[in-house]
Specification:
By secondary structure, this protein is of the alpha/beta class. The chain contains 14 helices and 25 strands.
C-alpha cells in the first residue's frame, strides 16, 4: 500500500498572488527516493498557457515593484529569512523526504537560504553605483543600477531551497519580478519556499511559481520576449541548449552547469585530514553536487597509504533513509539517476579501472523500496578515462596517481569543467602556486571541493558556466543593468565627443 505523508497535499501554481490549478487540469506526483511508495504530494502539470499568465502577472507587478525603494524591498527579504529560520526544521525534514539528503545536510541547505536572505537584504542598502568626473564644467556624471524586469528562474533538484534562494532573493531585492520553475523531482520544497516568500509580504505577481516539465514550462519561459533574463542551474548539455536559444533571442542568460572536481593530495599533506575531506566531498549529498569531489589526485609516495585509509573509512559509511540519524549517505534522487550511476560503474570497469569498493545498487532489505547505491571507489584510474572526465553525479570517485605537484595541477585542469578544485599540502609555496594555476572558479586549500559560502562569488570557468557568478556582491550584477546619467547644469550647449580643448579659457 502506498504510504502518504501527513502533510501530503495538492500543490497549485502561484500566479498573480493566487494559488491556481494548471490550465491542463492535470497533476504529477512527487515520491520519496528513500521509499518510492511514499507520496510527497501532487503538483500542477502546467503548460504554456500557465506560463503566459505568470509572465503577464510578473510584467504587471514589475511596474510597481521596481519603484519600491530597495531598502523597503530588502525588509521583505529579511522577513523571509526570519520565517525560514522559524520553519527550518520542518522544511529540512520535508527536503530529506523529497530529495533524499541526510537531515543534517538538509538543515544546511535551508541555512544557506537563511544566510542568503540576510545577505541579500543587506544588499538593499548597498546597491552602489558610481559618480565620475565629467570632462566639462557644470556637468555631473554618474551610473546607477536598474532592474531588468521579469526574470525566469529554473532550478535543479539537488539543492531545492538553497539554489532558488541564490537566484530569487538577489533578483527580488534588485527590483525584478520572478517566474520560477523548480525541478520536477523536488517541487514540494520549492512550493514551501514560495509560500514563505509570500508570507513575508511580497506583493501579488512579484513571485510566480509554475510547476511542470522543461518542455512545457521551461521552454515557454525562455521563449517569452518579456522575460529579460534566464538564470538556470543544470547539466552542461541543457545549459548549452538554453544559452544557444537565449543568444538567438538576444536575452541575458546565467548558467551554472556541471563540474568534474578534484582534490589533489601531495606527499606532505596531512593524510587523515585529506581522507576526511575526500569522504565528505565524494559522498556528501550522495555525490549529487556540482561541486562534488569526483576525482582524487594522489602523489605516488602516499598513494597506497591513502587508498588503504580511504577505503577503510568508506566501508564504515551507512547507506539508508536520510531521516535516520545513524545514516551517512542517503538515496540518489530517482531510478533514472540510479541507472545512470550504475552505467558509469560498468564503464569504469570496462576501461580497466580497479574497483576498490562498492559498485552495486542496493535493493534488498531496508533498501528495497528506494534508490540506493553503494559508495564506490575506483583506483588506478587514468586521467583520460570517461570516469575521470565526465560528470557522474553520484557516489563514485576516481583515484589517480601522479608523480609530482606539477603533474597534479595538469591532471586537475585536464577536463572541460572548471568549478571547484582543491589542494592538500603543508607547503605554503605549493599552496599559492596551486591558487594561481588551478583553472576553476573556486579553489580550496586543505579543504574539500564542497562548502562554498554565500558571501563569495559562486561559479566556474570553461564548460561549467558562461562567466556569471551567483552569491556574494556579484549576485546583484546578473540581475541589474547599468544606466549612465549626465546632468548638464551649465545652461548652454556643451558639445561632448569633439575637440573642445581649444574652447577652454
Amino acid at each position: 500500500m502506498t504510504k502518504t505523508l501527513e502533510k501530503t497535499k495538492t500543490c497549485l501554481n502561484l500566479i498573480g498572488g493566487e494559488w491556481v490549478k494548471s490550465n491542463t487540469g492535470k497533476t504529477f506526483t512527487s515520491y520519496s527516493p528513500a521509499n518510492q511508495e511514499e507520496v510527497i504530494g501532487s503538483f500542477a502539470d502546467s503548460d504554456e498557457t500557465d506560463v503566459k499568465k505568470a509572465v503577464d502577472a510578473a510584467a504587471k507587478a514589475f511596474e510597481t515593484w521596481r519603484k519600491v525603494p530597495a531598502p523597503e524591498r530588502a525588509e521583505i527579504i529579511l522577513r523571509a529569512g526570519l520565517l525560514l529560520e522559524e520553519h527550518k526544521e520542518s522544511l529540512a525534514k520535508d527536503m530529506t523526504r523529497e530529495m533524499g539528503k541526510v537531515l543534517n545536510e538538509a538543515r544546511g541547505d535551508v541555512q544557506e537560504a537563511i544566510d542568503m536572505a540576510k545577505y541579500a537584504a543587506g544588499e538593499g542598502r548597498r546597491m552602489f553605483g558610481m559618480t565620475v568626473p565629467a570632462e566639462m564644467r557644470n556637468k555631473f556624471a554618474m551610473a546607477v543600477r536598474a532592474p531588468l524586469g521579469v526574470v525566469g528562474i529554473i532550478t535543479p533538484w539537488n539543492f531545492p531551497v538553497a539554489i532558488p534562494s541564490w537566484k530569487i532573493l538577489p533578483a527580488l531585492v534588485a527590483g525584478n519580478t520572478v517566474v520560477f520553475k523548480p525541478a520536477t523531482d523536488t517541487p514540494y520544497c520549492a512550493y514551501r519556499f514560495v509560500e514563505i516568500l509570500q508570507e513575508a509580504g511580497l506583493p501579488p505577481g512579484v513571485i510566480n511559481f509554475v510547476t511542470g516539465s522543461g518542455s512545457r514550462v521551461g521552454n515557454p519561459i525562455i521563449e517569452d520576449p518579456r522575460v529579460r533574463l534566464i538564470s538556470i542551474t543544470g547539466s552542461s548539455f541543457t545549459g548549452r541548449k538554453v544559452a544557444g536559444r537565449c543568444g538567438e533571442l538576444m536575452k541575458k542568460i546565467s548558467c551554472e552547469l556541471g563540474g568534474k572536481n578534484a582534490i589533489c593530495v601531495m606527499d606532505d599533506a596531512k593524510l587523515e585530514l585529506a581522507v576526511d575531506g575526500a569522504l565528505w566531498g565524494a559522498f556528501g549529498t550522495t555525490g549529487q553536487r556540482c561541486t562534488a569531489t569526483s576525482r582524487v589526485i594522489l602523489h605516488k609516495d602516499i598513494y597506497e597509504k591513502f587508498v588503504d585509509m580511504f577505503v577503510k573509512r568508506a566501508k564504515e559509511l551507512k547507506v539508508g533513509d536520510g531521516l535516520d540519524p545513524s545514516v551517512d549517505v542517503g538515496p540518489v534522487v530517482n531510478k533514472d539517476q540510479l541507472k545512470s550511476i550504475n552505467e558509469y560503474v560498468k564503464i569504469g570497469q570496462d576501461e580497466g579501472a580497479k574497483l576498490l569498493f562498492g559498485g552495486k545498487i542496493l535493493d534488498k532489505g531496508d533498501h528495497a523500496k528506494g534508490c540506493f547505491h553503494e559508495p564506490t571507489i575506483f583506483g588506478d584510474v587514468k586521467p583520460n578515462m570517461r570516469i575521470a572526465q565526465e560528470e557522474i553525479f553520484g557516489p563514485v570517485v576516481a583515484l589517480i596517481k601522479v608523480n609530482s605537484f606539477e603533474e597534479a595541477i595538469e591532471v586537475a585542469n585536464g577536463t572541460e569543467f572548471g568549478l571547484s578544485l582543491s589542494m592538500y599540502t603543508q607547503d605554503v609555496n605549493r599552496a599559492f602556486n596551486a591558487i594561481n594555476d588551478l583553472e576553476s572558479g573556486i579553489v580550496y586549500v586543505n579543504a574539500p571541493t564542497i562548502g562554498a559560502e554565500i558571501q563569495l562569488p559562486f561559479g566556474g570557468v570553461k564548460q561549467t558556466g558562461n562567466g556569471h557568478r551567483e552569491a556574494g556582491t556579484t549576485a546583484i550584477d546578473q540581475f541589474t543593468e547599468w544606466k549612465s546619467i549626465y546632468v548638464d547644469y551649465s545652461g548652454v550647449l556643451q558639445r561632448a565627443q569633439i575637440d573642445n580643448h581649444g574652447d577652454k579659457k
